[in-house]
Write a structure and sequence with these properties.
mainly alpha; 75 residues; Arc family DNA binding domain-containing protein; Arc_rbn_hlx_hlx; Ribbon_hlx_hlx
């Protein structure tokens, strides 16, 4: 993983506030949200290529499903 580089940013307070709300909605920091937005814009404009897309799948099991799977595995 490449080291990250610090960069001072002057930004309109209204834009920063809206970005903060968006970041909060997506459980990101403002910094991560700005980086996400920039990367997305660069990919969509064809200036950089998407190298890898990470997909995370979360399986939610209720207790009855978990119990039935456990029973099947012990048979």
């Amino acid at each position: 993983m490449a080291a990250k580089k610090s960069f001072p940013l002057r930004i309109n307070p209204d834009v920063l506030a809206a970005t903060q709300r968006w970041a909060d909605d997506e459980l990101r920091s403002v910094n991560a949200q700005i980086e996400y937005l920039l990367r997305d814009a660069l990919i969509k404009s064809g200036r950089i290529k998407l190298v890898q897309q990470v997909v995370t799948e979360i399986e939610v099991l209720d207790s009855s499903t978990a119990d039935s799977k456990k029973e099947k595995s012990t048979k």
